[in-house]
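In practice, a research group might receive sequence data for several interacting partners and want a quick structural hypothesis before committing to experiments. The following worked case mirrors that situation: the sequences arrive first, and a predicted assembly follows.
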Amino acid sequence: EVQLVESGGGLVQPGRSLKLSCAASGFTFSDYYMAWVRQAPTKGLEWVASISYDGGSTYYRDSVKGRFTISRDNAKSSLYLQMDSLRSEDTATYYCTTVQWFAYWGQGTLVTVSS
Amino acid sequence: DIQMTQSPASLSASLEEIVTITCQASQDIGNWLAWYQQKPGKSPQLLIYGATSLADGVPSRFSGSRSGTQYSLKISRLQVEDIGIYYCLQAYSAPNTFGAGTKLELK
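A structural hypothesis for the assembly, expressed as tokens:
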């Protein structure tokens, strides 16, 4: 059974940093592009960033470029999102997902950016 | 960026009724379209991929179709468990973009 378990969310002040993690199991992690998708409270879904199989290629939405860094550790079957210079508009539930049709999703981790 | 215009924003329907939700892509995306269902407090669940293919474990009352750059999700006989918010996604090019969502409620 495919499982994606996010962690690392919480309350953080504007301008500070936070690192999200996603532990994957039940599939060959290194065979999949991976992504982070977020959902602000009561809002829709928004793709944030993606990473290739080996981490050699990364992609970001414009609003997080230069502030967020996606990475992965295939040996640990783990995906990460380093979020720096956080803004109030980054407040959302962050989901880890497999890029192939975004078929598998974690339960999400809530990030709240507020003073 | 490719825009996905989803309609309606909300929909109220009766049990056993046929329900149709549409997404209009701002340019040609071929069959690179997926549909998701999200229930309150839960993660999105893939329903349809490749515009018309049913994901594993999804009831056959769900179906997807395409006409040019317009895509439709049809629920043939609405059930209580189908209540939630539905999203389309274009997987043709980065940045992947979702529709704004359709909130489906029981009448």
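Before designing any experiment, note the following. The mean pLDDT of chain B is 97. Chain B touches chain A through 21 residues (CB under 8 Å).
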